[in-house]
Amino acid sequence: MTKGRLEKRFGLLKKEGRKAFIPYIMCGDPTLEKTGRMVRLLEECGADAIELGVPFSDPLADGAVIQAAGQRALAAGVNLRVSMEFIKKLRDQTGLPLILMTYYNPIFRYGEEAFAKDAPACGVDGVIIPDLPVEEGLAISGEAARHGLDVIFLAAPTSGDDRLKKVARASRGFIYFVSITGITGAKLDVSDRLRASVEKLKKVSKKPVMVGFGISTPEEAATVSSIADGVVIGSAIVKAAGELPEARLREYLLALRAAIK
Amino acid sequence: MKKGYFGPFGGRFVPETLMPALMELEAAWASSTRDKAFRREFGALARDFIGRPTPLYFASRLSREFGGKKTKIYLKREDLTHTGAHKINNALGQALLAKKMGKRRLIAETGAGQHGVATATGAALLGLECVIYMGSEDARRQALNVFRMKLLGAQVIEVRAGSRTLKDAINEALRDWTTNVKNTHYVLGTVFGPHPFPSIVRDFQSVIGKEARAQILKAEGRLPGHLVACVGGGSNAMGLFSAFLKDKNVLMTGVEAGGKGIESGKHAARFAGGQIGVFQGAKSYLLQDEVGNVLGTHSVSAGLDYASVGPEHAYLKETGRVRYTYATDGEALEAFGLLSRLEGIIPALESSHAIAEAIKTAPSMPDGSIMIVNLSGRGDKDVQEVARLMGREFEKEKTSPGERKTGSL
Questions:
Q1: Could you give the C-alpha distances from B104 to A236, B171, B183, B185, in angstroms and in order?
Q2: Average pLDDT, stretch A168-174?
Q3: Highest mean pLDDT among A19-23, B65-69, B363-367
Q4: How far is B190 from chain A (nearest CA, A)?
Q5: Looking at chain A, which terminus has fewer C-beta neighbours within 10 angstroms, N or C?
Q6: Domains, chain A, ranges and CATH?
Q7: pLDDT at A193
Q8: In what side-by-side order are the strands of the sheet with B282-286?
Q9: Residue A37 near residue A220 (C-beta atoms within 8 A)
Q10: How far apart are CA B316 and CA B376, in angstroms?
Q11: Catalytic residue flag (residue A62)
Q12: What interface predicted TM-score (ipTM) does this complex get?
């Protein structure tokens, strides 16, 4: 199989000795048109990949900011299918790796097999499913891999060594380490534990390790990127995109980008 | 069967952060079931604190009115437990388990407030911190229970997200647990959520069926022909049914909330109106739209007002072992009044759904049949809300005298 966009990008980053900046935005918050503009802006500001959230009625791993964004996107009529079609259209404009972040039930409803086939056909490179632990996700991961779609699993600060190993082995594209014991948008706590967990993951696997949840300032992004292969920033960017005028938003994104190295 | 599954239903669909806690809980549960001291301590509390065994009561006037000479209706009196509903069986058990695991803080969701009250009670008894999540709509219609929880020393957090009912309270409780998992145990109140909760809750509630089975054999010398219980998440029903699953001649009926009728879309009848989905940790039947978003539900009873149903129930439906039906708001309200007048027992609105089904089916049962209805809770908590609903009905009667009266409330 030819190399996917994610693999190529991480290969390039490694060669250049750089760390990945992966912003998260909610697809359709508050409109798809705005999401399209955000994707262009994020690419201009140096994003290495973009995570697109699929709105869900009951986002139990998300804090207040992303819950509210999801409500706006649901009101705009966005769902998994719409998000996939949106990415298909977006593919004319961007070659960035695009990752969907969706809860499991929309995929289950769509049909695991159909999703594993249709998503990469639309130009989706990876999928993160926050309520799907490794044990429940092996079937879809295998099916997705056959079609060139990476299922990215999450590891958490509560995961013991055996589970870190399990996640590292199963995850494709990269390993997503959740920086905090909590939900998205909570306060970051950079501890020795974070460093130790990331090092453990790196020891058992050659896959890149991204760290996300709770990172909002350039300083935090700098600290985390010194530990991991890259940083995922969600709630803070979703909030900024909704509140800041475009010039200030661009400044903020560029500051994040500059901090991640 | 795959571990943590009931046929294709169940599983463990939660963020990785919670997986180690679920495994720790599973191990603690397994060791406590083997631990004689734990069983003795819980047994003593069940007797002296909860008030077990609860009576199996022959409802003679109800039987005469609806069973003719043919059917004897017995009520399993979980309404007589301390705190007034079966919820205490599980809440106290899990509180004890949490303490054994070294957790200092209990959190729980609650719909009707009975599970919240039971958890707050367990926390007070064992000296643990307690936070209860409750949808603000449920808090409004179960105001009495909110005050009870506060009296018991619990903090009650009203959840204003989504439909402001049980499912939203569970989302918030799961978020809390994800954040505070190290020192906190989540006392899930029903046979739902990720493995091992459906099994733990069923096991703690199985005392209902074990007692009922022994009691009916003593009273009648034979097994009942039919068991009836209401099904929200389904813990009181699993508690009663579990002791009879191998008795092939015992029919079982689970009664969901029909709300304003299935056609209206305003109901919580997952088997009648849902499809298989994955929600809040488990694969089961789910009220959802065509793209997998969870639909709002409606029931006059907060405890049945939930979009999904215990995975073991889904399995029992699939295998045909249990029949599932529903009672509407109107039927439940009518049963609420009937049982109050005929037997001097004011049932919870949840349990009223089971009573409604019992009086519907009793007349058509074979001669000499015995039926056991699980009277899962008492109705004191509902009196205020029923009075409010009655007031509304009376107003309607004044403006449109041609309309049919709902029940004889």
A1: 33, 21, 6, 8
A2: 97
A3: A19-23
A4: 18
A5: N
A6: 5-255 (3.20.20.70)
A7: 85
A8: B5-6, B9-10, B282-286, B275-279
A9: no
A10: 20
A11: yes
A12: 0.96
Nearest chain B residue (CA) to A187: B179
Gap between the Cα atoms of B3 and B347, Å rounded: 37
Rounded to whole angstroms, the Cα distance separating B278 from A130 reads 13
Task: Report yes or no on whether pTM surpasses 0.90.
Answer: yes
Is the CB of residue B175 less than 8 Å from the CB of residue B186?
no
Residues of chain A with Cβ-Cβ distance to B281 below 8 Å are 131
C-alpha torsion A242→A245→A251→A256, nearest 10: 0
What H or E segment, with its residue span, contains residue B276?
strand B275-279
DSSP per residue, B195-225: TTHHHHHHHHHTHHHHHHHHHHHHHHSS--S
Instruction: Give residue for tokens 């407030």.
Output: B113
What residue in A sits closest to B14 (Cα-Cα)?
A: A131
Is the per-residue pLDDT at B403 higher than 60? no
CB B233 within 8 A of CB B189: yes
pLDDT band at residue B69 using 50, 70 and 90 as cut-offs: low
The residues on A that touch B, with CB distances below 8 Å, are 56-61, 63, 67, 74, 79-81, 104-110, 130-136, 153-160, 163, 167, 178, 181-183, 186
